[in-house]
Specification:
single chain; alpha+beta; Transcriptional Co-activator pc4, Chain A; eight-stranded antiparallel sheet; 42% strand
C-alpha cells in the first residue's frame, strides 16, 4: 500500500427488509489522502462502488448518520454491527458490517490526515487540470 493510503477488507452480510441474511460479500474500505474527506466502499462482484464522507461513516457507528442515498446506523439487534443502507433510483440495498472494524479503519485514516486538516491535503489545481484534460 502506498504511503497516504489505507484499506481494510470486511465480510458484509446483505439483509432483506426483515433483517434476514440473503448473502455475504467481501467489502473493502479504501482511503487515499489525496481525497481526504472520502472513504471508497468497494463491494466484490459489483461493477461500481460508492463514496462516503469518513466522518459520517464513523458517526454512524454511534448513532444514525447520513442523508439521502447513504444511511448508516447502529444495528438494533446487535451493537457489534452497523447497517449501511444504500438507495439508488427505486432500489435499496442494506448490509451489516462490524462496528469495531469501521471505527478502527476511520481512526487509522485520522492518523494519515487529522480531522479538520483535510483542506491541507486537497490539490484543487491538480483536480482542475485533470478535469480540463478530461481525465477526472
Amino acid at each position: 500500500m502506498k504511503p497516504g493510503r489505507h484499506s481494510t477488507s470486511l465480510r458484509a452480510e446483505f439483509i432483506d427488509r426483515t433483517g434476514a441474511t440473503m448473502f455475504s460479500r467481501r467489502l473493502t474500505l479504501l482511503y487515499d489522502k489525496s481525497l481526504p474527506y472520502e472513504v471508497w466502499i468497494d463491494i466484490a462482484g459489483t461493477p461500481s462502488g460508492m463514496v462516503i464522507h469518513r466522518n459520517i461513516l464513523l458517526a454512524g457507528t454511534f448513532h444514525p448518520a447520513g442523508l439521502g442515498d447513504i444511511l448508516i446506523d447502529p444495528w438494533k439487534d446487535d451493537p457489534g454491527l452497523v447497517v449501511v443502507t444504500l438507495r439508488s433510483g427505486g432500489e435499496t440495498v442494506r448490509f451489516l458490517i462490524p462496528t469495531q472494524a469501521v471505527r478502527n479503519f476511520v481512526n487509522r485514516t485520522y492518523t494519515i490526515v487529522p480531522d479538520r486538516k483535510e483542506r491541507d491535503h486537497l490539490d484543487v489545481d491538480g483536480w482542475i487540470d485533470q478535469l480540463l484534460a478530461g481525465t477526472a
